[in-house]
Design goal:
The chain has 3 domains: about 180 residues, 3-Layer(aba) Sandwich (Rossmann fold); about 180 residues, Rossmann fold; about 90 residues, GMP Synthetase, Chain A, domain 3, CATH 3.30.300.30. About 25% of the residues lie in helices and about 25% in strands. It contains 15 helices and 25 strands. α1 runs antiparallel to α2, α2 crosses α3 and α7 crosses α8. It is globular, with a radius of gyration of 23 Å. Keywords: Ligase. It comes from Streptomyces roseirectus.
């Protein structure tokens, strides 16, 4: 194995990140595109100093509400930046924030609360009157906390304004510090347990990259507030004093004036949002004209989209960084694209492991040497790996081989050592080398497509699900020309983009989509 450089043993305590950043860069701005649910009076124009004060204030309110060190506090509320603030506030008390996607249904949330054995639950009126209505929360949660207003059986943080501030609690670095969850495409999601030391491990490669940026650039981000990526991204940017723009509503016409005003030099969002933001390339306000660096994680992004986004920048030699990672491990493999190589790039080639920090091997699936035709299981080693799945350690250990972790993806390494990720193991379709590679190729040939997903049909055949711009009917002749290299594909099924089932990070839930298609196709 290549040389490994262990990560720092200094724990990354989320509750202290804003305070430590404010001590060095108090006046650096943080701009929001929305009001903060819990403290709307704070406004949309913050600084590092006011951000730190909000976290300290909310920690005091949570303590007054009864939250204590070592306890779990499940955050399940309307998507809003206060999820980040409340998670940091809970961490500041030594409690363990458990981030639950606002997209989860009430039955799933109750199952997760029961798994946590009556945690504190922080939710809001929209959830209590919606997905949680009728559920016996008194049985599943030790207490129910709401941001504002009065509701029987709940504690309101609004009523606890002005509570005495608390001294931060510093738990040991190997204690649970944060929980996120998996996408739940095959049942109730698993709760991924991160420690302050594992967070430091996943922080390291991101911080090393930002350290190479010599100028202070404004960082604009639209990432799920319940994903660990948001917490690592802000930890890095706050550490380096980068102005931050936080976006909740990604609708292009809403984003355009915000980006035109703040002129970010770094932009990060989900791959599917980057597809939507292709509209910004020709926008008269030129909102992407000052972007020097794009950052993409979570899922594969198609090379034509990368090329379009790079073309929008007026900066010299803009770069698109593509990271391959996982909630359990953080960033693992990286490469970058420029205007010169984006269109010609192989979207399945995700680059190299991060030198000295992450390591990768490919294990045969069927006894044959891993290659494009016979991809193997991808296994990784990283100091950023989570320590377990809460209350499901056996499921976690099934994916471990000592320090190696099986990602669930299949692929191979080429003769130069570059990592090619072809598919999730559960998404492999017979007679298709890589569903993702086919999708890249066809999307590059048909500008009218905004999404293409290959899933297995009722008989295991490869069914293309297509979404077009403005739901314009797909031209059969153009489709046949674009897929002439892929005779194994079934006839396409066209759906509106909004009907694709997605995770909190906007990934298409392929197994759920395949299930829905089977229900639709089998009677025929």
């Amino acid at each position: 194995m290549a040389l490994h450089l262990p990560a720092s043993k200094k724990p990354l305590r989320l509750g202290l990140v804003p305070e430590e950043a404010a001590a060095r860069h108090p006046g650096v701005p943080v701009t929001l595109d929305h009001d903060i649910d819990t403290v709307p009076e704070a406004g949309r124009e913050l600084t590092f100093a006011s951000l730190a004060d909000l976290v300290d204030d909310l920690a005091a309110r949570l303590w007054a509400a009864g939250v204590r060190a070592g306890e779990h506090i499940a955050l399940y509320k309307t998507h809003n930046f206060d999820i980040y603030l409340l998670a940091c506030a809970a961490s500041r008390l030594g409690a363990v924030p458990v981030l639950l996607s606002p997209a989860l249904d009430g039955t799933t949330v109750r199952a997760l609360l029961d798994r946590l054995e009556r945690p504190n639950l922080l939710t809001d009126e929209a959830k209590l009157s919606g997905p949680l209505a009728g559920l016996p929360l008194a049985e599943s949660a030790a207490r129910v906390i709401v941001p504002r207003g009065e509701r029987p059986g709940t504690v309101s943080l609004e009523e606890l304004a002005g509570s005495p501030r608390r001294t931060p609690v510093r738990l040991d670095g190997d204690q649970p510090a944060l929980m996120t969850h998996t996408s739940g495409t095959t049942g109730v999601p698993k709760l991924v347990v991160h420690t302050a030391l594992s967070l430091r491990g996943r922080y390291r490669p991101q911080e090393r990259l930002v350290r190479l940026i010599r100028e202070r650039e404004t960082y604009a981000v639209h990432v799920s507030f319940v994903h660990s990526r948001m917490y690592m991204a802000l930890a890095v940017m706050l550490e380096h004093g980068m102005p931050v723009v936080v976006i909740d509503d990604p609708e292009p016409e809403r984003v355009a004036p915000l980006l035109a005003r703040t002129r970010p030099g770094i932009v990060e969002t989900h791959p599917n949002t980057f597809v939507e933001w292709e509209e910004l390339v020709e926008h008269p306000l030129r909102p992407l004209s000052n972007v020097k660096y794009y950052s993409g994680t979570f899922d594969a992004i198609h090379p034509p989209t990368i090329h379009k986004l790079l073309s929008a920048s007026l900066r010299r030699n803009p770069i698109f960084f593509q990271f391959y990672g996982q909630s359990e491990c953080g960033p693992l493999v990286a490469r970058w694209y420029t205007r010169k190589n984006a269109l010609k790039a192989n979207g399945r080639c995700l680059g190299y492991p991060l030198p000295g920090m992450t390591h990768l091997r490919v294990v045969p699936r069927d006894g044959q040497r891993p290659s494009k035709k016979t991809p193997g299981f991808i296994e990784v080693m990283s100091d950023g790996r989570a320590i377990t799945y809460y209350a499901e350690d056996e499921r976690y250990q099934e994916e471990c081989d000592g320090r190696w972790w099986r990602t669930g993806d299949v692929g191979y390494r080429d003769r130069w050592g570059r990592v090619h990720v072809l598919d999730r193991a559960v998404d492999v379709i017979e007679n298709v080398d890589s569903t993702l590679e086919v999708e890249d190729a066809v999307l590059g040939r048909l500008d009218e497509l905004v999404e293409l997903v290959l899933v297995a049909g009722p008989s295991g055949e490869a069914v293309p699900v297509v979404c077009t711009k403005n739901n314009v009917p797909l031209d059969p002749a153009r489709w046949r020309g674009a897929v002439k290299d892929f005779p194994q594909l079934a006839d396409p099924i066209q759906l509106p983009l909004a009907e694709l089932p997605r995770t909190a990070t906007m990934k298409v839930q392929r197994l759920e989509l395949a299930r829905r298609l089977r229900e639709r196709l089998e009677p025929a």
